[in-house]
UniProtKB/TrEMBL annotation, chains A, B, C, D:
GO CC terms, sorted: mitochondrion
Active site positions: K174
Pfam families reported in the protein's UniProt record: NAD_binding_11, NAD_binding_2
EC nos: 1.1.1.31
Domain 3-hydroxyisobutyrate dehydrogenase-like NAD-binding: from-to ranges: 168-294
GO molecular function: 3-hydroxyisobutyrate dehydrogenase activity; NAD binding; NADP binding
Source taxon at top rank: Eukaryota
Family membership: Belongs to the HIBADH-related family. 3-hydroxyisobutyrate dehydrogenase subfamily.
Binding site for NAD(+): 5-33, 68-69, 73, 99, 249
Organism: Galemys pyrenaicus
Protein's name according to its UniProt entry: 3-hydroxyisobutyrate dehydrogenase
One GO term (biological process): L-valine catabolic process
Extent of the signal sequence: none
Top EC category: oxidoreductase
Length: 301, 301, 301, 301
């Protein structure tokens, strides 16, 4: 393990922090940067190398993982005045685990290619808990020959590393999954709410859906109705889980991709608007299954 | 088996015909009525008793099953000038397997109760194939004490007979399931189409969805994209299966129930409109998974 | 004026009360019934005849106006155990000013025709203020030869009496107008909100819309943005005007009519759901232009 | 007139061509560039100066108008390898009449400002006919002190030049207007179609809407139903007018702006999807009022 070369890590937020720690556990020395110096302190105390800019990370490491909140942040970290591209070495492997617009991933990839390095998009599925336990799923887009090299690192942080195709397809897979998830979650909430108002017992209705063609992950694994399942956010006042504001962000990316590729997303765009409205009505920090609660409120006269 | 008393059967269409035959196979003598005399001929030839009106069925049988296309037909068969209620005997068991508005089921039940008989709604899930093989699912609403008596008959025609609660809850369960099914089918079609346009291989995308939170019956059992699965309508030019026009009808019932109970169905109402439009664009007789084809058409300039 | 024969009036609520008074002002003696006796007291004190049932109204008057909240109420008042049809005289003119499902209007008309009387649907546009000042608009459906007779009475209560065609078309005209109104109000609210967030001054944006192709009644006469116009509900915290709950009801009727005629209403059904949601979020009693406020709320983090 | 200094014009397409000609008519010498050399020929023959790049235009003219199809084209023309910014002189006035994302307008403005020139966005309303007759409406965003200078040129091409506020607000005003236009056009089409199916005469229904609260530009000036009005696209098989594909593009811009500002556009996003679908169903080149025809198609069984 002593022979492992350093890995750069940029973006040590809620997700990046436990991901970087899992790399440490697997014996990789780290070169760290975050726009908030406080986020680096813990790693500095643990003996990892903290530097002053993405460019400096690229100067000291030829494998770099980025975990950033938005497309804009990713562009800045790669192409900004002190960005990775200023000092990246030929042959470096740059893996972006941010969830961003696949069109941006493709643009970054082109710029990276120009300087003789390799870019892969590898967004994750699974929240903070999975990041801590090293059980994330990575959806990876990029040149297939480099997948093994990427997987060596990603497998330290995730239990499932899936190759999806050319650059941008990792993002595409994540966006498509989350759009379908949002649609079926809202659909489950609507069906459960309608059924309850028509006199059905919620547990019985869930059971019927789950043995029928309405069955979906939102109905059988993450049911949004309090009292139907244990150990899910609906059983805990919609705390924890995957926040409404994050779902709204991913649906915004799906919308952008659909608009630019002229793909109709009749329900996807509506789901986007619903999660947008929920963010304005006090649901931003609740789990996205709280759409049941949002629909459930009774009319008052 | 000789001792079995006759069972009335009203409505011998695509579904009613094989259902009635399964009762015959289990040794029940039938008393038959259909508004189209031709539909009865086959049963007459087989020695079953054919009568001239629903009232006459009620005169000769104290257990009656009805299988009719619309709420209006059900009202006519029960409450019309020659309807069941004109001659029904006290203590009779009337089982309606039509898919209709649960509010209508409740009204019929009240009228039936007035004459001292028992009404249960028992709509089915599963198409003509399941009707032939006796593998339908029945969702049953009505007084719980009578469920055993109903199940005796229904079990001859279905492999799954589920008690749902008070009168109307059978319809409610079916409507809620089919609304969620429509939503997740459209969602699957949108996600698959968007992913393909973003460069993903359809089979790979389906595999990713099915091991992730986007998983649903429409993605893992009945995938709407040609080439992804065998033995489903999408593999056979969307022939067979569950017609778009039938899905549009069920969504209309969901909409009616939602409007009358003031339940919001943000995506459900949109799904209704989408299947409505498809009926006008030549998709009525295709399987409802053809929504993928409907969305897939490319813009032309 | 002494020679005028009595007019029956059933339903003396918020709207019916001032409408009936306008008939009195024009010298028509009234025969009154309301399910709530208190609603009749004022008229009794004024010397009008109060009776015990709709049947009794029909016994004493051969022209009757009904103003009721729902389709169910109209059916009860016409066809119930003590309904108008029990004692209506041949040749009577029955005018229903309720806003109900046009299909119900047609059914009532058939029953009325059977007993040799005439039915017309004549829903109103304009609120309580217009009812008081006699400035309602009536949209009238029924046999054209009877329109003059109906207009004689309706013109006492409204400044605009429009003949729309066969029975049910009065309702149809009202429902279509209100559906378009709801859609363009929500559209105006969305456009104004988006423009404001993009940096436009609300008054300037309204001015631009109103001289361009976005112009509509909701933008130029009833603008939903506080500060843009005087004398409209948005200038008065959305008090007065046309309540959200009433708009939701009318959109429910539009939805029912669209479902039964298989007419696609892609935006109309969405508008229905939006007003439905608003009713559950505390907007029921506010004017329907408060959809701007509903959309305006900012996301909180 | 001899003393007028040359004006640059980039983008001589369907709209740019007649706009540039109107500048010529007002005596402005032109410096012309288009990516398609054929588009310049007509102007060369008329004695105007044709150059090889946007940079060359900037070299020879200190007032430049750009009229380009997409945000990408605008970025290329301004910031590309041979873009305006390469040779623009201090104090130049750069007016972009393209309809593009207001966020892009703001970015371009920043870059232009860096080199000491002035940028204004001035998208147009009105089609090819208005461009020919000099009757366009310009919605102008930028520094107010420069508005008079811009208006001098724009008034040669349009009869209505409106100052909207800071850079980007011209685009914002146009996008908001067109989004509301799309929504009310679809709403009008739905209301007219529903009314017709409920038995109303289309002309009568249009008349009722136009004297009521459903009134809008789409109902009273540009009615989408054939036979209701003369001289509009619906009277001419939806030829001419404003193409569906252009409306879809503008709605895509509205969607992008709404997503990035987190503004809910519940109906706007649906309108976007509807025009998107229409483009895929053969309506791209028809006027956008053909949504009536799109909805009108009857269900077939």
């Amino acid at each position: 393990m002593a022979s492992k070369t350093p890995v750069g890590f940029i973006g040590l937020g809620n997700m990046g922090n436990p991901m970087a720690k899992n790399l440490m556990k697997h014996g990789y020395p780290l070169v760290i940067y975050d726009v908030f110096p406080d986020a680096c302190k813990e790693f500095q105390d643990a003996g990892e190398q903290v530097v002053a800019s993405p460019a400096d990370v690229a100067d000291k490491a030829d494998r770099i993982i980025t975990m950033l909140p938005t497309s804009m942040n990713a562009i800045e970290v790669y192409s900004g005045a002190n960005g990775i591209l200023k000092k990246v070495k030929k042959g470096s492997l740059l893996i972006d685990s941010s969830t961003i617009d696949p069109a941006v991933s493709k643009e970054l990839s082109k710029e990276v290619e120009k300087v003789g390095a390799v870019f892969m998009d590898a967004p994750v599925s699974g929240g903070v808990g999975a990041a801590r336990s090293g059980n994330l799923t990575f959806m990876v887009g990029g040149v297939e020959e480099e997948f093994a090299a990427a997987k060596e690192l990603l497998a330290c942080m995730g239990s499932n590393v899936v190759y999806c195709g050319a650059v941008g397809t990792g993002q595409a897979a994540k966006i498509c999954n989350n759009m379908l998830l949002a649609i079926s979650m809202i659909g489950t909430a609507e069906a459960m709410n309608l059924g309850i108002r028509l006199g059905l017992d919620p547990k019985l209705l869930a059971k019927i859906l789950n043995m029928s063609s309405g069955r979906c992950w939102s109905s059988d694994t993450y049911n949004p109705v309090p009292g139907v399942m244990d150990g899910v956010p609906s059983a805990n006042n919609y705390q924890g889980g995957f926040g409404t504001t994050l779902m709204a962000k991913d649906l915004g990316l799906a919308q952008d991709s659909a608009t630019s590729t002229k793909s109709p997303i009749l329900l996807g765009s509506q789901a986007h608007q619903i999660y947008r409205m929920m963010c304005a009505k006090g649901y931003s920090k609740k789990d996205f299954s709280s759409v049941f609660q949002y629909l459930r409120e009774e009319e008052t006269f």
